[in-house]
């Protein structure tokens, strides 16, 4: 059986996921305050934050 490799965020040695970056990683605490410190992905990526998220 092939084992899934969990990517690790090298900056802090934590399992890398969108959720981790958006909600949990202390490195992004400042960026998170722009999104009004969301407590869930739904909140972070909600309508009220859509004007704050810029997709290049
Ligand atoms: Zn982290």
From TrEMBL:
It comes from the Eukaryota. This is RNase H domain-containing protein. It comes from Aphis craccivora (Cowpea aphid). The lineage of its organism: Eukaryota, Metazoa, Ecdysozoa, Arthropoda, Hexapoda.
